[in-house]
């Protein structure tokens, strides 16, 4: 991990320019803040008292918008996952100023120098966050996990909880986690393998602000604690999806598999990267064997991600069953309501279903509109993320024009070749079409321009 050398503060200026270019909201209007203050004062009076349950949270150390808390108990051979979700729906009413602004934003936007939250901080980092400083309102989904990893929603209720600890991915110990945490994660992982799921995440390229000042650019593989924690969210979101399907309603996260033509191209890329892929081995099986710490495997994982059409949202339809290929099951988003608008309506829907009540009209109406709103928000989030990375890469190499770098080709398309610099957390594009995935090149940096967020390489 290396700190970016940025004596001219090009990164600071560039981040400001990105905020302007992509219309990143700067705070909230006074009337929205006033409405949020009033909402934060609402007393949770429709919530059961579950403060005796030993809930904990597990997130990045710096997070304060805590969507989930959990505890686990044994029920014979089954495990009961009590997954508490921040009850933002208790504070935000349909059509109020906070709700209207959330529909404009869609998601929380993240930049290295700060985020633009979906809801005002008094709610998202205060009254609605599951912080360990007192009773907090939540919606508890109780998910039954069988020995074979099968999941079922056993119930949902509004409740007051008290988190015992705010645990962090990079420092948590096994003793701090509820008994059954590792076993539950193992069951979910084995069930994924049995279904042929391919939920494999390549290393993320990210820019991180350092506590001592400055920034760093790196590839960040997921930590084991992060992978295990994601199993809890996966189990809950699958159980929620099944509950909505049974009642012919809801909003689902869907994604198709790469086409046969794309799979053929991936076989060529695997060969170029020196990855053994037997002719009779399905892509899903190969994906589960990939190691993101291996640069060749990481490059191939990125190629697989680009080979599909990406994930999207779909409301319930009688003529089309929802399916997420990476999960190999029906799947929904319900576990991050402080950061995603759609989750709020899914949570309220499942709460109604589990307690024999009609689905709220506002949720039914929202499901028809949310796919477009969330697609727009996801697109803007992706554009901002890419712009931040491009800026950091240009700052990192500014002043090194003329130097030569070893690189590996990771993908080729009509626009040229995508390359990864060896030994540097930098992915770029060059105007070359006579190369293939896995080829090693020597490149000369001709220009690094933080103002335009571009790198230009020539083949040496």
TrEMBL record:
<dbReference type="InterPro" id="IPR012340">
    <property type="entry name" value="NA-bd_OB-fold"/>
</dbReference>
<feature type="domain" description="RNB">
    <location>
        <begin position="47"/>
        <end position="356"/>
    </location>
</feature>
<dbReference type="InterPro" id="IPR050180">
    <property type="entry name" value="RNR_Ribonuclease"/>
</dbReference>
<dbReference type="InterPro" id="IPR001900">
    <property type="entry name" value="RNase_II/R"/>
</dbReference>
<dbReference type="Pfam" id="PF00773">
    <property type="entry name" value="RNB"/>
</dbReference>
<dbReference type="Pfam" id="PF18614">
    <property type="entry name" value="RNase_II_C_S1"/>
</dbReference>
<dbReference type="InterPro" id="IPR040596">
    <property type="entry name" value="RNase_II_C_S1"/>
</dbReference>
<protein>
    <submittedName>
        <fullName>RNB domain-containing ribonuclease</fullName>
    </submittedName>
</protein>
């Amino acid at each position: 991990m290396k700190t970016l050398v940025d004596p001219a503060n090009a990164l600071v200026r560039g981040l400001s320019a990105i905020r302007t270019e992509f219309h990143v909201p700067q705070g909230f209007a006074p009337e929205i803040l006033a409405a949020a203050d009033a909402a934060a004062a609402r007393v949770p009076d429709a919530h059961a008292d579950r403060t005796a349950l030993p809930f904990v949270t597990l997130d990045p150390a710096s997070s304060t918008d805590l969507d989930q808390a959990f505890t686990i108990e044994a029920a014979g051979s089954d495990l009961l996952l009590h997954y508490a979700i921040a009850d933002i729906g208790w504070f935000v009413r349909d059509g109020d100023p906070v709700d209207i602004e959330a529909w404009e934003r869609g998601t929380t936007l993240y930049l290295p120098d700060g985020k633009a939250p979906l809801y005002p901080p008094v709610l998202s980092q205060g009254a609605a966050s599951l912080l360990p400083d007192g009773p907090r309102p939540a919606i508890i989904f109780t998910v039954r996990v069988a020995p074979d990893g099968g999941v079922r929603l056993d119930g949902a209720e509004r409740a007051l909880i008290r988190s015992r600890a705010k645990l962090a991915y990079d420092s948590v110990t096994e003793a701090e986690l509820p008994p059954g945490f590792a076993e539950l994660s193992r069951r979910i992982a084995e069930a994924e393998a049995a279904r042929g799921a391919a939920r494999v995440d390549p290393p993320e390229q990210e820019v991180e602000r350092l506590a001592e000042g400055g920034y760093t650019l790196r590839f960040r593989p997921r930590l084991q604690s992060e992978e295990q924690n994601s199993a809890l969210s996966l189990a809950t979101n699958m159980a929620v999806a099944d509950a909505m399907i049974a009642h012919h309603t809801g909003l689902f996260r869907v994604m198709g598999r790469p086409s046969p033509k794309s799979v053929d191209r991936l076989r060529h890329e695997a060969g170029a990267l020196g990855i053994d892929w037997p002719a009779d081995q399905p892509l899903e099986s190969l994906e589960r064997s990939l190691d993101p710490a291996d640069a060749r495997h990481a490059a191939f994982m990125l190629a697989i991600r680009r080979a599909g059409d990406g994930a999207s949202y779909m409301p319930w339809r009688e003529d089309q069953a929802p399916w997420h290929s990476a999960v190999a099951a029906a799947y929904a988003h319900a576990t991050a309501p402080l950061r995603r608008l759609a989750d709020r309506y899914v949570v309220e829907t499942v709460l109604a279903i589990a307690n024999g009540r009609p689905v709220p009209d506002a949720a039914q109406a929202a499901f028809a509109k949310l796919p477009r709103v969330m697609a727009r928000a996801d697109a803007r989030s992706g554009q901002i993320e890419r712009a931040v990375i491009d800026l950091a890469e240009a700052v990192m190499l500014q002043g090194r024009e003329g130097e030569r770098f070893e690189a590996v080709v990771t993908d080729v398309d009509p626009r040229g070749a995508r390359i990864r610099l060896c030994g540097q957390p930098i992915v770029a594009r060059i105007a070359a079409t006579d190369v293939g995935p896995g080829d090693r090149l020597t490149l000369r940096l001709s220009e690094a321009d933080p103002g335009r967020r571009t790198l230009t390489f020539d083949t040496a």
